[in-house]
Every structure is written in C-alpha cells, then in structure tokens.
Amino acid sequence: MTDSEDFATLFARHEAGPAVEIGQVVKGRIIQITAEHVFVDVGGKGEAWIDRAELADDEGRLRVGVGDEVEATVVATGDEIRLSHKLRQGAQARETLAVAAQSGVPIEGRVAGVIKGGYEVTVGGLRAFCPFSQMDLRRVESEADYVGRVLEFRITRYGENGRNIVLSRRQVLEEQGARAAEETRKKLAPDAVLPGTVVSLADFGAFVDLGGVQGLVPMSELSHSRVGRAGDRLHVGERVTVKVLRIDEARGKITLSLKALEGDPWLAVPGRLRERQVVRGRAVRAAEFGVFVELLPGVDGLLHASEIPRHRQAELREAVAATAEIAVMIVTLDTGKHRIGLALAPEGAAVGEQMSSTVAVGAVLTGTVDRVEPFGVFVRLAPGQTGLVPNAELGTQRGTDHRRTFPAGSEMKVLVLAIEEGGRRIRLSREKALAHEEQAETQAYMKDAAKKGGFGLTLGDVLNQARKKP
Question: Pick from 221, 213, 216: which is nearest to 257 by CA?
Fold first, then answer.
C-alpha cells in the first residue's frame, strides 16, 4: 500500500465515521421546529434533533425559536444525531456545584422533604442532603416548616461527581449574623429603638434577634397588661420593635422592652375611672395584704384584705387562680402615685354605677366590727369605708375585754366624729352614739307624754292646766 493510498483510505474512513461522540457537548443553531422535535444544525457535524418537550416550559410553551443557538449533549449517533438539552444543564450544574464546593460560595436549593436525619434538598437539579443540625441556628418545633422553601446553603461535601452532596444552611446564617452583628453594635445604646425578630420563648421572657445580636425582653417588660406566659403575647418568628433598656458589656447581656413603647397606661385613667364607681376587673395576683385587680391594661387596683369578708376569702382565692373577673368599687384614686384602692361592689350594684356615701360627720350609723386592736376597734361602715373607735370613745369600763365584748362580725352603733385625708381616716365614737340615742329616746318620750298630759309635766304645768278647767 502506497502512502497516497493510505491517506485516501484514512480520509474515507474519517468521512464515513461519526462526526460526534456520545457525551460530547455541541453548539448549534435551530433550523426547524416540528410538533415533536427541534432540529439543530451542528455545523460540519451535520443535523441533529432535540425532543421539543426539553425546550418547553411547565405550560408547554417553547422557550426558543428558529435561528436561536442552543448548547446540548450528544446522547445518540448513527443514522441520526440525538441531543439532550437537559443533560447539558445537568453537566453544567455539576460543574457549578463543584466550583461552589471548592470556593465556598453559597448556592440556592429547594427543600424537597424531610428524610431520616435531615432534609432532601434539590440543588441544580441534583439531590443533596442537609442534616437537621445544619438547617438553622436552632431547632424549630416543626421540621416540615422548611419543606417547599428555597434557601441558601453552603456545600460542605461534594463527591462522586455530584451523587454525594452535603449542605449546611447554618454556616451561611452564622456568617450573615456576624456581618449583621457588626452593624447592629454600632446602633446599640440605651433608649435606642430597634427592629428585631423573636427567636425563642422562655419562662422568664422572650429572646429577640436584633441582627446578629440577641437581647432579652423579661416578662415584666412584655406589656403593661399582665402576661402569664411569653407565648400569650408573642410567637417565634414574629417581627417586633423594642427599646433597649440596659447593656451589660461585662456579662454580654442586653435587656429590651416592648412595654416601654406602649406609652403610660395611667394617662387613660382620668377619663375612664372615678372614685366610688363600680367596675369589673381581673383578679391577677394575691398578696398577704390583699388582691390586685387589673382594671385597665397596665392599671391595677388593690382590694385590701380588710375589704374582703371572711365568707368571701375562698371565692377571691379561686378568682385569682383563674384570673377571673370580679365586680369592685373604686374607693380611692391617686393618679400621681399610681394607686387605686378598691372594695367589693355592694350587692345589686350595676357596673358603671356611681355609689353615694352615707358617711358624714355627725351621722349615727350601724357598722360591723372588723377587728380589735390595743388602741381601739375598727368598724366597717360601708364598702371601702372603715373607721376607728378609740378606746376612749367605746364607753366601756376600765379593764373591759374589748375582744370579748366586741367580737369580729358583731354590729356596733357609732357616731362619725371626723373624716380626714379625703375619707381615708374616719374617727368614730360608740359612747357618743349611745348618748345621742338616749337623748333622742328621752326627747321622743317627753313629747309623747306631753301630748297625753301625764308624766313629764312640771308642777306649774299641772296648776295651769287645773285653772283652765271650768
């Protein structure tokens, strides 16, 4: 065989052989589109075709037209050349993911579902795995909350040409948090008002992320209204605006407040609450000296223990346990000192009713003994109105056992001597009430006797009557 023959044979074989190889990536221009195929001119390599469905969107609309250039992977050769656009996309995806794994550049992925130990995530058309511990900075209550979401991840492992991909979203969040923290610290200062997100709830309050930096809203700073649990006021993921109260650099603690941004609740009191008004409120807390009742959000009044009869003490304890509503009457109101004194509403009183007072200087009233002290006896005259009968005004002999003579709950008739300090101090006298009662009885008797002409007339009166007789 001559050299020229050898060359001719090789050239013929080259012309007869396939112009492309399976797996090769080629570029071409679309020359024709039919109902099922898209034909592509791949230059000197001949004509090839792609399944039309590969170049259509989810609704079947073709994304390319005649004259457009496409890039695809050869999947078959022989009598015809068949290409795949999707396979080329997969190859590109693998290359992109491999570069992302080496460089640490975050990539987007769609969480497909929950599997054993973590999540299945689709990245670039490939399946990847993200452990539960790497999905967020903290574990969420419902693992399914992430399913269907498109999130940013970092590739921590890329192997077997894309068949073994492990992801971490936590690393991305930590880096974002570190960058945000630098900016947040520039704004942090007492009295600063900042936006944040509730990240966790505890028995003692709520933690709020201010942007890479977390602070605590204590239970007492959640609201002017009394809150039993932080979850009653907030939920994880909720966007809030808070005020910075304190920054403890040494301990790394930041104290925040929601309540400080609500305004002073006592500003609403003058227009809504009045002394001796009957209102309803929630029994929110019990103390040794009485029961606190929430009348308005952030405005509590004290129902003093002295205003709770023995037979109603159990009822009030149950009301506090259930934070139930009770009817009370406002006895004293001091907006300057933020104090409201309460008494149980009189039976039959309607909510909103303004109760009148029967206690006045000089009035003789019948009250109930509340308690006996070494210096005198306290007598309850009406709801919220208790006065003191000093020992000197009891009208008893020296050495009398007042506790035995005036047991708690017994009735006592008293005369009002003085009302001081806006009604908060009432001085009473049993002795003068008895004297007043005797005087009234004597006068009534004398009048009656005078009408009958009997006992009670003087000798002169009798002689005058005798002279007038015919």
Answer: 221
Distance (Å, whole) CA 4 – CA 175 = 68
Look at residue 182 and tell me if it is in a domain.
Answer: no
Task: Determine contact, residues 444/399, Cβ cutoff 8 Å.
Answer: no
Residue 237 and residue 199 share a domain: yes
* pLDDT for residue 334 is more than 70: yes
- Is 1 a member of any domain? no
Please calculate the CA angle 377-342-298 and round it to the nearest 5 degrees: 145
- Contacts of residue 13, Cβ cutoff 8 Å, sequence gap at least 6: none
In the chain, how many domains are there?
5
- 279 and 308 fall within a common domain: yes
Q: Length of the chain, please?
A: 470
CA dist 340 and 344 (Å) reads 13
Domain of 237 in residue numbering reads as 194-261
Q: Take residue 379 and report the two structure tokens written for it.
A: 């007598």
Mean local confidence (pLDDT), 181-185:
85
Q: Is the separation of the CB atoms in 244 and 191 below 8 Å? A: yes
Task: Specify whether 31 is located in the same domain as 99.
Answer: yes
- 3-state per-residue secondary structure call for the chain: CCHHHHHHHHHHHHHHCCCCCCCCEEEEEEEEECCCEEEEECHHHCEEEEEHHHHECCCCCECCCCCCEEEEEEEECCCCEEEEHHHHHHHHHHHHHHHHHHHCCCEEEEEEEEECCEEEEEECCEEEEEEHHHCCCCCCCCHHHHCCCEEEEEEEEEEHHHCEEEEECHHHHHHHHHHHHHHHHHHCCCCCEEEEEEEEEECCEEEEECCCCEEEEEHHHCCCCCCCCHHHCCCCCCEEEEEEEEEECCCCEEEEECHHHCCCHHHHHHHHCCCCEEEEEEEEEEECCEEEEEEECCEEEEEEHHHCCHHHHHHHHHHHHCCCEEEEEEEEEECCCCEEEEEECCCCCCCCCECCCCCCCCCEEEEEEEEEECCEEEEEEECCEEEEEEHHHCCCCCCCCHHHHCCCCCEEEEEEEEEEHHHCEEEEEHHHHHHHHHHHHHHHHHHHHHHHCCCCCCHHHHHHHHHHCC
| 157 and 221 housed in the same domain | no
Closest by alpha carbon to 284, among 274, 294, 276, 275? Answer: 294
pLDDT tens, residue by residue, 26-84: 888 999 999 889 999 987 677 888 888 878 887 888 888 999 998 887 767 777 888 87
Q: Clarify whether residues 28 and 99 are in a common domain.
A: yes
Mark whether 200 and 255 lie in a shared domain.
yes
Contact 432, 365 (CB under 8 A): no
Mean predicted lDDT score pLDDT of the chain: 83
Do 310 and 361 touch, CB atoms closer than 8 A?
A: no
